[in-house]
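User: Can you predict the 3D structure of Zinc metalloprotease? Sequence below.
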Amino acid sequence: MTTSEPASTPAPPAPQRSKGFVIGRVAGAPVIVTRSWFLAALILTILFVPNVQAVAPELGAGAYLVAVAFPLLLFGSVLLHEAAHALVARARGQNVTELAVTLWGGHTAYTGGLGRPLDGFLVAVVGPLTNLALAAGFWWAYQASPVLNVPTLLLWTGALSNALVGAFNLLPGLPLDGGQILESLVWAVTGKRNTGTVVAGWVGRVVAVGVLLWALVVPFVLGRTPALTEVLWSALIGAILWAGAGAAITNGRRREAIAGLSAAALAGPAVLVPLGSTVADALNARTAAGGGSSSPYVVVVGHDGAPVAVLDGDAVAAVPASAWDLTRVDAVAVPFVAGSGVHPEMSGTELLTHLAQRSGGARLVPMVDAGRVTGVLDLADVARAVRAA
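Assistant: Sure. Here are the predicted structure tokens for Zinc metalloprotease:
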């Protein structure tokens, strides 16, 4: 059971929703039961039947029907776990996109970018704490039951399963909730979230290996041979954890690389011409600045120095040389989108978020420092830098 936060991109796509059945909404997001959950429910029902038959042998074949209560009980626990994630995530300023119950438990997805270590810690810790609280409640009710029957069996199973789920999710490695808690702690100490992600990812790989070793070593310590089914399940869970940890390490390193992207480093130089200038004036200014046929950018500015437009090379090439002195630059320039300008010190996710929200689909945006244009940023260059990162 995990929470996930998609990484930022220059033009983030709409979050992709898990496939399944929508049964309601929590924190403004759909609650989805995936098709794989029904497979898990079937397996859990079959595994739980012998326990029901041991307590109530008189049920006969009806034990299968009663055993369905166990996956439903576990479903409710998972749903409360994910709802806790979702509600706290929204309270911390995140946009929750979905809660999904799956074959392996569930996940809560949200966007918005965690701003502080405390945000990540609180969003992560509430899920396991919810399970531990449920375990305590089920255990109290079980202890208060005078006889052992099917209801008390379910109470005992609810206490055990929630305790195991809560404790397992607190293991300090991504993609588990405990991994996000570790990530937040390292982030708080180092001031770098990316460092926390990478550290928690490597610890997650250790946890993945530990899950398999637990199934192999513990039985020998107890003097018995490891059961094949336990080893296979542990190997499968370990493989899933290993893959999730690897993805976390990759995301952490990618975010670190993206954090190094800056507007000042990516922008091209610009030469300025006032509004009303001719094409000849613009080309002369570019030549005087030492530019070739395509650089530096020629930026048209207003009387206050604010960027108005950027010269379009193709449009200029269509103007005969004999008409350069007669054609004004505003006739061969592409207007900048209002408010799209970036500051030279913008970098990382701040820069990418600004471009995604303010560029308006334009390819070129001005770089402005203290009211003066100092360069032009080509979003194609930004996209290439992001892909390289």
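Residues 20 and 369 are 50 Å apart (CA to CA). Residues 6-14 have pLDDT under 50 and may be disordered.
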